[in-house]
Amino acid sequence: MTAKRFKNPRAEHGFQGRSCSILSVGSYVPEKVLTNADLEKLVETTDDWITSRTGIKERRIAAENEFTSDMAAMAAQRAMHASGIKPEQIDLIIVATLTPDMMFPSTACLVQQKIGAKRAAAFDIEAACSGFIYALEIGQQFIMSRTYETVLVIGAEKLSTIVDWTDRNTCVLFGDGAGAAILQHRPNAHGLLTACMGADGEKSDLLFMPGGGSMCPATKNSVAAGLHYLRMDGKETFKNAVNAMHTAVKEALRRCELDITQIKCVIPHQANRRIIEAVGDRIGARPDQVFVNLNKYGNTSAASVAIALDEAVREGVVQRGDLVLMVVFGAGLTWAAAIIEW
Ligand code: UT7
């Protein structure tokens, strides 16, 4: 049983008596499995290299006619089913994604239609792999301010569409999927205690996709030059990820006057097992406190911690009343750490 003496930083911001809890979660991953052995046939790589450098064994790939909004809607429906929330109850939908169905309209609007949440306002946010915690914090603000009662937050990605399948440096890392959470005020619960978010635009060139935006719209030349594929400086991204995630976790624990031993489950962004182990080491977490599922899904960016949280709940690793620490890192650069009383 988790020792539960902590400070609720929200109370200091005039939010006494109000909290934002995650009522339920749900996730969806596509059926098609792409194993390391399959990748050995596509690029010059080996199962041994991928496993030892990343911890990934396989990832899921969406069908050609299965889009980010479809996966997001599936995850949302599973989250709604888990808490008995009806589509008409949802006031707001926030989708975190860097692979929207289209430049516009937002994927959130497409999800609104697919799940029949006719009353809901809807918008997307883009904070790359950090998107789910950014979206949780935004949703939380609407609940705390009593603007909305029920908010649906989703992280969803079809990264297989922006990966260069001839580049072994990146194509082995990513997968598709979606995770969703329903937010509401729950009496007698603290819910989302804090979220420490950060960004560093100076390092935007470590992980980016040059084509497809207003700087470099799609032309025959841009497509021929492969500008619509993601690019990453892996080593620098790795170092920055470990440092930023460590710092964000320290700050989140400090704000709540918590010690890492009081945390039941740490759910880190699932990018690389070595990053997870380095962050775990630095924050003093025991390996059995840290949830890992990247062996099955690879890096699913904004969907990563949302899928992991859903699995941790379904497997009984996280139970009501437990303290959960989520920590993410991604392009931007962006990062965030959140502490939740589940
Ligand atoms: O979600 C957003 C955040 N993203 C991340 O956090 C990713 C962070 N970075 C990483 O996870 C790691 O840097 C990688 C997994 C991408 C790469 O691991 P690394 O230990 O940094 O390897 P490296 O890039 O230094 O490459 C080492 C060698 C190179 O060969 P040489 O130059 O030493 O001869 C690469 O060409 O491994 C080679 N290599 C591969 N070999 C077999 C790179 N990719 C592969 C591959 N298979 N798939």
Describe the structure.
With 342 residues, the chain is of the alpha/beta class. The protein has 2 domains: 9-189, Thiolase/Chalcone synthase (Peroxisomal Thiolase, Chain A, domain 1), CATH 3.40.47.10; 192-341, Peroxisomal Thiolase, Chain A, domain 1, CATH 3.40.47.10. The protein has 11 helices and 13 strands. The protein has helices spanning 36-42, 47-54, 68-83, 107-115, 131-144, 168-171, 220-224, 234-255, 273-283, 294-297, 304-314, and strands spanning 21-28, 32-35, 58-61, 92-96, 121-125, 151-158, 176-184, 191-199, 207-208, 231-232, 265-268, 323-330, 334-341. It has a 5-stranded mixed sheet, with helices on both faces. Strands 8-13-12-11 form a 4-stranded mixed sheet. Strand 4 (92-96), helix 4 and strand 5 (121-125) form a beta-alpha-beta unit. The longest helix is centred in the last third of the chain and has 22 residues, at 234-255. The protein is globular and about 55 Å long. It starts with 20 loop residues before the first strand and ends with a strand. 51% of the residues are buried. The mean pLDDT is 96. Oxa(dethia)-CoA binds at residues 45, 49-50, 53-54, 129, 168-169, 172, 207, 234-235, 237-238, 241, 271-272, 275, 299, 329-330. Oxa(dethia)-CoA (UT7) binds at residues 45, 49-50, 53-54, 129, 168-169, 172, 207, 234-235, 237-238, 241, 271-272, 275, 299, 329-330.
